[in-house]
Structures are given as structure tokens and as C-alpha cells.
Amino acid sequence: MKDRILSLIESVIYKDLIWLQPSSGGSRVDLPIVISTQALRHVLQTLLLFKQARISASKDSTIKCQHNSVGSFWEVTIGDCHASVVESILASQMSIEKIRFRGSILNTVQLKGDYANGLITCCPEDLAEFVKSVLSCPVHESIDVFPIESAYQLMPLNKVVSTPSEPSYVTTTMNLPERQVSAILGPNGDTLNSIRFQSKCWIKVFSPVNKPQWRPSKNNLQRIQITGARENIGIAMVEINRICGMAR
């Protein structure tokens, strides 16, 4: 049985497109899962061995594995399957490599991952809870940002701003490449100060982590910490997401 499954996997793994039909539905994942060929082999083996899905030739199948020849990876999109299938896919990937999604900075905060170049890398401690977060994580499309005409538009309407010591305040951290952090800072820190002013959040930028002194690189990661009311953090994240999108 296992040998037959392995043979079937090898017969399709070199194609550019693999369709899977899960045994049951009920859930969907809006974010594409980014996975290596080695990890995809393990995912397919798990799904087929435990009869959670079958390889299909129909485009009506709800799990699509698309090979990206340029990046040498696969993108797995899940239209409809049972939550247990999603958990099996992520568990199989996590046994080989870190879980990765293609998404936005807003998605990164929701999944508590690290963001770089449009990819979210996650290392969840509790996979069951992580799957719940994944299933409830929507795709954030491009955001239209309209310039303000006066400071009056920034004034809150009947909004009470609490102090940082109150429970309504939370802290969010993220790791971003230096080139994106530079764009967020802007000339003389003007862009960052503008985000602080608009969102009314405390935003702190830390020095790059693991930066080699002898070889500067724009791919070094820097940590950004945002503290404020949840709705205000959302305002800051929208603007940061827009800036990072232009700085890729």
C-alpha cells in the first residue's frame, strides 16, 4: 500500500500542477501555503496514506498545488476541506520545515509569524490553536489610501483614549527586512513619526538582529514593536503594510 502511494506521488511530483480532492469539506484557507517539494511529498504521503484526500484530474477539486519553477517551491491553495485535513497538511510541513504562507503584514500579526518579502513564516507551539487562526485569517487585498486635506480629519469623534496601563492596550512585534524598515522610517524618521501621529501608537524600531559587522546586508531583520489600542494598531498596520508593499 505504502509503496503504491509513493510510486503515485513520484509520478505527479514533477508536474506543474497537482489537484487533490479531500474526503470531506467544511473549511477553507484563504492564504496560499508555500511549501518545498520535499515537504509536499510528505504532505501527499500523509493525506493519501490516511485517506484524507486523493489525487484528482478534475479542476473542480478543492486543493490546488501549483509549482513555481522560478522560486522552486509550491503554492497550495485550499478551497474546501475539513479542518483536520488542514491540520495534517501543516503538521506534515512542520515536520520538514517551517510553515510559510503568502500574505500581508496584517496576516503576520494575526498568525504571530515573521514577515519578509510577502512571505509569513510561522513556528506555532500549539498546532490546533494555530489552525483555528489560519482558518479565520482573511486575505488583505491592496488598500486604497487617501491623503488627508487637513489635520481636522485626524481628530477622533467622541473617542476616549485610555492610558497605556489599561488592559485595552496591547503590544505587537514583527521582524522585517532592513530595506522595508528604512522605508517605514523615511527621511529623518518623518514617515515613522507620521504613522505614530495618525495611529496614536507607540512604535519602537530595534537594531538589526544577527547583523554581520563585516558584511552589511539589506536582508538583515529588524524588530518593530507597536503598542496601543487594538483599533489604533490596525491603523498603524495598514500604513506599514502599504509602505512595505512599495519597498519590496
UniProtKB/TrEMBL annotation:
Recorded superkingdom: Eukaryota
SMART domains the UniProt entry points to: KH
Pfam families: KH_1 (PF00013)
InterPro entries in alphabetical order: KH_dom, KH_dom_type_1, KH_dom_type_1_sf
GO terms of molecular function: RNA binding
SUPFAM superfamilies the UniProt entry points to: Eukaryotic type KH-domain (KH-domain type I)
Residue ranges constituting the K Homology domain according to the UniProt record: 168-245
Keywords on record: RNA-binding
CDD domains recorded: KH-I (cd00105)
Protein name in the entry: K Homology domain-containing protein
Organism per entry: Candida viswanathii
